[in-house]
Design brief:
With 256 residues, this protein is of the alpha/beta class. It is 34% helix and 19% strand. The strands form 3 sheets. Strands 1, 2, 3, 6, 7, 8, 11 and 12 form an 8-stranded mixed β-sheet that branches. Strands 4-5 form a two-stranded antiparallel sheet. A two-stranded antiparallel ribbon has the order 9-10. The longest helix has 13 residues. It is globular and about 50 Å long. It starts with 14 loop residues before the first strand and ends in a 5-residue tail after the last helix.
Length: 256
């Protein structure tokens, strides 16, 4: 199997991604959650990005502050000086993406560009921190992903958007050439199932690998599902339960 970017270099072992860091206390996407994942030995973090009114990239999943913080309102309608005083879970400050990339300069970060507001700020942070070799820039929208990548001076890793991944899944069943369905992307990042319907079989994994693409699956918190996916040969697992995922990989001799 080939890979197209240094981001995927993991000594041939599965990539373990800590989903929004690691927190069992509802402190997702906080510096504390990211530090907890790093303390467990994680070399890959997953986070999300929105942009403030004055162009600061913020590591936050939702478009608004309402669900996870003690503040309210859309991030894109507020300036950074008002966003940074919001507290995740009433405790932890909302981090700037630059702080995430700067605090752990050897850790690789999967960044989901959640909205148009994040496009220019995310690109600016990557350029400023020179993080091109250690970030993976994705989005549910292929257009958002492409616009972000276009602003960068050097290539970064990039997974398929939602429609592209669906097209690949359908094509893999019909026997289509994965190079045609996958095009410019380096990887697929897809959910494991929709209810009882599982998206992946060995055939799909083999097809992606033959085309030199990796498959990362989200968001897997069950031990048995982790084992099943690793047995299928997936290249990465995104999990809220970084502790359980590490245990599984250690037991299999696949922990990096």
């Amino acid at each position: 199997m080939t890979t197209r970017h240094p981001y995927f270099d993991n000594n041939g072992l599965p990539i373990a991604l800590a989903h929004r860091g690691f927190s069992l206390d509802g402190l997702e996407n906080s510096m504390r959650a990211f530090q907890s994942a790093v303390d467990l030995g994680y070399g890959y973090l997953e986070t999300d990005a929105h942009g403030t009114l004055d162009g600061v990239a913020v590591a936050l999943h939702d478009a608004t502050l309402d669900r996870t913080t003690d503040a309210t309102g859309e991030v894109s309608n507020r300036r950074w000086d008002s966003v940074k005083v919001a507290r995740i879970g009433g405790i932890e400050p909302v981090p700037a993406l630059e702080d995430v990339l700067g605090t752990w300069p050897t850790v690789k970060v999967n960044i989901d560009v959640k909205g148009v507001s994040a496009i220019e700020p995310v690109a600016k942070v990557i350029e400023k921190t020179k993080s091109h070799d250690r970030v993976c820039i994705g989005s549910f929208s292929a257009d958002r992903r492409r616009k972000t990548l276009k602003l960068l001076s050097r290539p970064v890793a990039s997974p398929a958007a939602q429609r592209e991944a669906i097209g690949w899944l359908i094509g893999s069943v019909l026997g289509a050439d994965p190079e045609i369905t996958l095009g410019e992307v380096d990887a697929l990042q897809i959910p494991w199932r929709n209810g009882r319907v599982k998206f992946l079989r060995k055939r799909q994994v083999a097809s992606a690998h033959e085309a030199g693409r990796q498959i990362h699956v989200w968001t897997i918190n069950d031990r048995d599902e982790m084992v099943e996916l690793l047995d299928l040969g997936v290249d990465g697992i995104v999990s809220d339960r970084a502790d359980i995922l590490k245990e599984v990989l250690v037991e299999r001799g696949q922990w990096a």
